Prior knowledge:
Blueprint: H1 3-19, H2 32-38, H3 53-68, H4 74-77, E1 80-84, E2 87-94, H5 97-111, E3 117-123
Parallel strand pairs: 2-3
Antiparallel strand pairs: 1-2
Helix pairs in contact: 3-5
Amino acid sequence: MTKSKYLRTALLCLFCVSSGFALQEPAKPDNTATNKRDRQPGAVTADKQKMNAVDRTLTARIRRAVMADKSISTYGHNVKIISRDGVVTLKGPVKSSEEVNNIVGKATTITGDATKVVNEMSVAQ
Length: 125
């Protein structure tokens, strides 16, 4: 290593250490409340998705409709869609209440019945 490369490396290390950059860990998301909710008996989680053709098709149609809407945020595109015996549960954070209404509307249109859509989405802070 040349003297100038050594000096640059030493200065960079000094800068990182003095600024705390190298010592700071990113804040981890606190999903404790969500995890507790999902452990409740009867809670609908992604592993409860039925694998029969009707429920798989229903989930796929809703997912396609959500993904096709480019006005929906990445949060909204990642919402969990779980179908069980024709009843669809929507879970996860989205960016706004308008986005909640948009996604619920798509699911309701596809299921054909508002009583078959369970909204468990939340608006992210």
